Amino acid sequence: MKIAGDTGTISSRERFLEAIVQSAIDYAIISMDLDGLVTSWNEGAVKILGWKAEDMIGKPATVFFTQEDREDGVPQKEMTAALNNGRGSDERWHLRADGTIFWASGEMMTLRDANDKTIGFIKILRDRTEERERAERERLLMHELAHRMKNTLSVVQAIVTQSLRNAASLGDASDKLQLRIAAYAKAHEILLQRDWVSATMADVVTAASMNIGLDGSSRISADGPDVRLGPQAALSFAMVFHELLTNASKYGALSNEEGHVEISWDLEHRDGTETLMVCWRETNGPRIVSSQPDRKGFGSRLIVSSLQAFGEASVSYLQEGFVLLAALPLAKIQLQSDLSAIETAPKA
Amino acid sequence: MRKVLVVEDEVLIRLTLVDALHDAGFEVADTGSAEAAIEIIDRQTIHLLFTDIQLPGKLTGLDLAQTVFARFPDVGIIVASGRIQPASAELPPRAKFFAKPFRFDQIIACFKAMNPA
């Protein structure tokens, strides 16, 4: 490393040190005089910061500080710290020649001559942007998980309150409670298997049927194209299908020996919006005598309110059987969660 | 009878809170977004507001709470969240904050203690 202003012969030891400095390309190693002007600039500095040595020698080593830091006098503070304590730490965003920023982690030390007189500074720094972003992602992820945990507990608390409130007996409450929580848990399981990105309509229907022991039943048909649901929609649909199947088993088409449930869905363009059309139709069940039977329990309200959060939904109590129709804009049901936004988020 | 507007996008929590408030003798309106809530207060008189902070759409529950306070300073307001603990400056004066999960009976007791609007 030829330090400008340095004179005399170059020893083999100096050549050895120079080779180390130049080959340490993951480290920017920069020396400066007492005025903060660059006296050497290694290959690592070229690689990390982007300026070439010939462009930097003799220039102030403040160009790679952000304007804000320059205005705050950060370069001077670093030099003062190095003079007073021997070292000054440099952990901050720095600028590259192309104007982009990176997170630097490094130190500034004083450079002394043979008589221990301070003749300048040496700065060593690394690009730690990836590590910093990883730490930031982890922090966000932990925060999101904590939130999700609290939200899940709130939902479970609501399930418990509702199941106890509308129960005919303690045994009834216990059944409702266990099945609802299991349905909610199964939906989580499907989402986890798919990295919390999406679940298909078919997955959600199958999981809900399995939860109450109706998987593979010839009395339930489910048919539709491969439609992916975002996490929020998948959780909502899981609860909706659970309540629908429970109601059908208790009062509807699955409560006798002949009834049938037909679940169908399709994608349609409605007013220029791609829309998921869902139909749940019960046939051959016990005849419904009143158009507003006593099925306005919590389950029925949950079904309609849950779907209305995504679009339009209505239920009809036809004599032939219960029918649910929903028209849900695809964009709303495929909305991603905050968690996937963290995964793909560009740096802060 | 005092009317409560419940704004909560998690349907299970919303319906359960609506039922609990009904049982406690309140009249209740409910919706899942701040925008829909503003449409409701344009048409109906409400005396009390319960809102979650994170809501779908552009407005948060804090925005809604501030809007309601600006238009109807007498409305009693409860704000809840599992994520954010708002600074008191972000809440309208006299508004109460509840961290999720909260007990439904605590929400009711808090509303009952608020001065009749």
Give structural attributes.
heterodimer, A: alpha+beta, Beta-Lactamase, five-stranded mixed sheet, 25% strand, rod-shaped, disordered C terminus, B: 117 residues, Rossmann fold, five-stranded parallel sheet, 4 helices, globular, transferase (chain A), PAS-assoc_C (chain A), Blue-light-activated histidine kinase (chain A)
Give structural notes.
- The complex is a heterodimer of chains A (348) and B (117).
- Chain A is built from twelve helices and twelve strands.
- Chain A is 44% helix and 25% strand.
- Chain A has two domains: 12-127, Beta-Lactamase; 132-339, Histidine kinase-like ATPase, C-terminal domain (Heat Shock Protein 90).
- Chain A is of the alpha+beta class and 348 residues long.
- By secondary structure, chain B is an alpha/beta fold.
- Chain B has one domain (3-113): Response regulator (Rossmann fold, 3-Layer(aba) Sandwich), CATH 3.40.50.
- Chain B is 38% helix and 21% strand.
- In chain B, strands 2-1-3-4-5 form a five-stranded parallel β-sheet, sandwiched between helices.
- In chain B, helix 1 (11-23) links the parallel strand 1 and strand 2 (27-31).
- The longest helix of chain B is centred in the N-terminal third of the chain and has 13 residues, at 11-23.
- Chain B is globular, with a radius of gyration of 12 Å.
- The termini of chain B are close together.
- The model of chain B has no long low-confidence stretch (mean pLDDT 92).
- Chain A binds chain B through residues 143, 147, 150-151, 153-155, 157-159, 161-162, 165, 236, 239, 298, 301-302, 305-306, 308-309, 335, and chain B through 9-17, 19-20, 32, 56, 82-83, 99-102, 104.
